[in-house]
UniProtKB/TrEMBL annotation, chain A:
The keyword Heme does not apply. It comes from Pedobacter antarcticus 4BY. This is Phosphonate ABC transporter ATP-binding protein. Keywords: ATP-binding, Nucleotide-binding, Transport. It holds the Pfam family ABC_tran. Residues 2-238 form the ABC transporter domain.
TrEMBL record, chain B:
GO terms for molecular function: phospholipid transporter activity. One of its GO terms (cellular component) is ATP-binding cassette (ABC) transporter complex. PANTHER family: ABC TRANSPORTER PERMEASE PROTEIN-RELATED (PTHR30188), PROTEIN TRIGALACTOSYLDIACYLGLYCEROL 1, CHLOROPLASTIC (PTHR30188:SF4). The keyword Transmembrane applies. It holds the Pfam family MlaE. This is ABC transporter permease. Keywords: Membrane, Transmembrane, Transmembrane helix. It comes from Pedobacter antarcticus 4BY.
Length: 250, 244
């Protein structure tokens, strides 16, 4: 479980996060949603230590992350897997080398053991046999799946996913969403997905935290989201005509 | 580089020297970088050094037209200029362009495409993993390239001088072997070591802190070459002042 308390973050005079708190449980898909510029990615980066919040705390199963030194943070980070918005695969490495990279760095496994793990991860994301391809040879959806395979290579306790559906067609988006949900439930990971994709919200949002202008406006599940009377949330969720029309059926 | 940047540069260097996660992985990267910086630059350095040696000999011969000056001086001046100044400095400036821009754009692209963030999230010390192999390769391969450049510059001087008839082979060889002070090699290698440090760390710094996209990566690459060249010339003066 990851718990954040009263997170505040500013860039110069611009306060991006204004006291955000929330609790993200293991084994369920936690979503952070909000419009562009609402502070979703900044919150995610504060949680993983890429940004340092001015105030507040981030706890990984009770371990206070914000007060840890470099070495202690490294130990926590070994338990984290992350899928970046642009996949962030290493260009100079093949798919196999990308997934094997954390295993090379942090385990003493033999090559055949590592290869077995790589093949298992590739199979898990339905990319068997793509070991020798370079990132430049992959489609956007395949890159995301390799990113997921790399993220789960070390059996992470915590999985962070930043905008998994950006740049993907709706069908591939659903495949990625389902994969995230399956992995979360199968390995009981604490998964946090930052998204503004309504298909994801309605499809996999077990716990949703809605941000608006740097503040937490609402939290709940995808079953509850259609029945709130918060104007900002309704404006966000039912912005499209399709969602407005579909609201009647929720 | 203003004081804030210089402070950030020093902090980055501090992070570079943290204990490597796995030395075997770093060792592989060091050999790859040695191949890129050293072997990959041999051809360019060979061509430049040979021609600079040849042209320098011709110009020295042109300026020393006097019956009172023995022609062996042409060889001596070519040797000392090549060893002390031209080989280390020209090699370093050429490498700042070739290697420096490559390092800056490689690391800058990794920054803007979140690959550095990915390294950090995995628990890897990204400055160490990305910069230390380049730094070690730089401080070992640049001195070797400078030795190579010295030899070719003096050889180029021989061919330039003798083929043009400015100096006879015997006079040139006598010139380069008379009153040779081996300390000049030490000074050149100290310079090469310092330049190797600059050529790898300054562009790495510029690339590591890039913000934005392709345009900013290109600007950082240009800035890396400019700052490296100025730093090389400044350090050239300081090392020369200190050691000679």
């Amino acid at each position: 479980m990851i718990e954040i308390k009263d997170i505040e973050k500013s860039f110069g005079s611009n306060t991006v996060l204004k006291g955000i708190s929330g609790k993200f449980e293991a084994g369920v898909t936690n979503l952070i949603i909000g419009g562009s510029g609402s502070g979703k990615t900044t919150l995610l980066k504060c949680m993983i230590g890429l940004h340092t919040p001015e105030k507040g705390s981030v706890q990984y199963d009770g371990r206070e992350f914000t007060e840890m030194d470099f070495e202690q943070r490294i130990e926590i980070r070994k338990e984290i897997g992350m899928l970046f918005q642009g996949s962030a695969l290493f260009d100079s490495m093949t798919v196999e080398e990308n997934i094997m990279f954390p295993l090379n760095m942090f385990t003493e496994q033999t090559f055949s053991e590592k290869l077995e793990r790589v093949n298992f991860c590739l199979e898990r994301v339905n990319l068997e046999g793509k070991n020798k391809l370079f990132p430049a040879e992959l489609s956007g959806g395949m890159k995301k799946r390799v990113g997921i395979a790399r993220a789960i290579a070390m059996n992470p306790k915590y999985l962070f996913v930043d905008e998994p559906n950006s740049g993907l067609d709706p069908k591939t988006s659903i495949v990625i969403d389902e994969l995230i949900k399956e992995i979360t439930e199968e390995y009981n990971t604490t998964t946090i997905v930052v998204t503004h994709d309504m298909n994801s919200v309605m499809g996999i949002g077990d716990y949703i935290l809605f941000l608006h202008e740097g503040k937490k406006f609402w939290e709940g599940s995808n079953k509850e989201i259609a029945h709130t009377d918060i104007q900002e949330l309704n404006d966000f969720v039912f912005a499209s005509r399709f969602m407005k029309a579909a609201k009647k059926n929720f | 580089m203003n004081f804030t940047n210089f402070g950030k540069y020093l902090l980055l260097l501090k992070a570079v020297f943290r204990k490597p996660e796995k030395f075997k992985i770093y060792l592989k990267a060091i050999f790859q970088q040695m191949d890129f910086i050293g072997v990959g630059s041999l051809g360019l350095i060979a061509i430049i050094s040979t021609f600079i040696g040849a042209v320098m000999t011709l110009q020295i011969a042109f300026q020393l037209v006097s019956d009172f000056i023995p022609k062996t001086i042409i060889g001596s001046v070519t040797r000392d200029s090549s060893i002390l100044e031209l080989s280390p400095t020209i090699t370093a400036i050429v490498l700042a362009g070739k290697i420096g821009s490559a390092i800056s754009s490689e690391i800058g692209t990794m920054r803007v495409s979140e690959q550095i963030d990915a390294l950090e999230i995995m628990g890897i010390n990204s400055p160490g993993y990305l910069i230390l192999p380049k730094l070690i390769a730089g401080i070992t391969m640049v001195p070797l390239l400078v030795i190579f450049a010295m030899a070719l510059s003096i050889t180029g001087g021989y061919f330039g001088g003798t083929l043009s008839g400015a100096v006879s082979p015997a006079e040139y060889i006598q010139g380069i072997t008379t009153d040779f002070n081996p300390y000049t090699i030490v000074v050149a290698l100290v310079k090469a070591f310092v330049f190797g440090f600059i050529i790898t760390t300054v562009p790495a710094y510029e690339g590591f802190y890039v913000k934005g996209g392709a345009l900013e990566v290109a600007q950082a690459s240009t800035r890396a070459v400019v700052v490296s060249c100025i730093s090389i010339l400044a350090c050239d003066y300081i090392v020369t002042q200190l050691l000679l």
